[in-house]
Amino acid sequence: MPRRPPDLIDQILALDPAHRAIAAFSTPRAAAAAARALRDARRVLIVTGFTVQPGMPETDGPPGAAVLGRALRRVGAQVRYVTDAANVPLVEAALKTLDEPLDVTIYPGEADGARRLLVSERPTHLVAIERPGRNRAGEYLNMRGDSVAAFNARIDELFVVAGVVGAGAVVARAVVAGAVRPAHAEGGLRKARAGSGSADNRRGASRFRRPVTVGIGDGGNEIGMGAMRAKLARIDALRARIATVVRVDHLVVAGVSNWGSYGVVAALARLTGVDLLHTPEIERRLIAACVAAGACDGITRRREPTVDGLGAEVHAAVVELLRLASRSGILESSRQGRGTRT
Prior knowledge:
By secondary structure, the chain is of the alpha/beta class. The chain has helices at 8-13, 30-38, 62-74, 88-97, 113-121, 157-164, 169-177, 199-205, 229-233, 237-242, 257-272, 280-292, 312-328, and strands at residues 43-48, 51-53, 56-57, 78-83, 104-106, 125-129, 212-217, 250-253, 306-307, 310-311.
């Protein structure tokens, strides 16, 4: 049986400059699937920002969030960004570069903050781009295996609570308080028994539906990689330890998380026929703006216009390739797998 033809966007996102074996935990056509899920989004919360050391938020994440948010606004969605205080200057700098509204919310730190934010915003879609997610022990680790919990807010709680919100407000509050193991973070949603909770709680939960969730990452410790824990664990012991348990409906893996976001935008542009992706020149400006706002490279830890150890020209070239891919579509397939073995 002939294989499905390769998607050019997939091929670009599969570039693996950091040698993280992303092919081992990537899913074909993930960017296209995420784009289809986001096409008719009405209200979107985009979560981003990864602080690698105290006072050192990285350049990967905020540019991708701003570019995706702009694309979604252009196709009719309302978009807001959620991050912590350390990353607000980066997200705002990226948005200013794109002349986008500065709709940035600092994640509330109180115990019930995630549930209350979801109730007030009522998102139809919840997206995470390069944001740490808890591992099986409840810790947040970087790619070196060091804890980053002290300087990264627990924003993954939004995805955990979103996964059980349909079970009623009582369950959601219990998850936040730690009294209930989050079902969404441990391998699928567990539905609450019919009739559980008070009538008031059931009415409160019915005010909005569970949002569609999307995660974009490049290493295994980011929100959304929970579905890939088994595959990540087979790569090496470090990956098994840092891997998050937080799942999403649509996971996009790329060599750099910003690229994953751009790949979704390229797929959305192909789907809608609208030119949604930014230009290579704007990519250079996005990186420079984030560095000027206090960002550092997540790998080198230096404050210079690089992302994950790669210069701005590399990222600009990837943007140009994705622009071409968004217009080129999917390669036609010839008959494959029918040749004679030699």
